[in-house]
Amino acid sequence: ATSPKVVRSSAGAVFGVDLVVFPGGAAEALGHLQAAGYETLATVVDGGRPYDQVDLTGPVALVVGNEAHGLPPEVVAAASRAVTIPMAGPTESLNVAMAGTVVCFEALRQRRATPGVTP
Known about the structure:
This protein is α/β, with parallel strands linked by helices. The chain is built from four helices and four strands. It has helices spanning 4-9, 26-35, 73-78, 96-113, and strands spanning 39-43, 49-50, 60-63, 81-84. The chain has a four-stranded parallel β-sheet with strand order 2-4-1-3.
């Protein structure tokens, strides 16, 4: 399920992460995460709730799409909520790594600021 390039680029971290494959794809995986108590957040360029106005202190699964096309509509529809990173000026979007980093950092910020929540 992983290519040699993926293994190499992960610096071996791929061996410490459980990998689960769902025959029904991402939408099926989101259903399982939701059933397990996770809020599933799909990142979208526009039309989602601003990421910093969403409670990220509980169990959250973040879904990010590729840089050229984003997430397929069926994956966005299967998620609990769509979130957007508002952009300033003429900037249209961030690349997928930066978008994921921004939302994960906000989750950490919120968790550190909330008594009783472990970051």
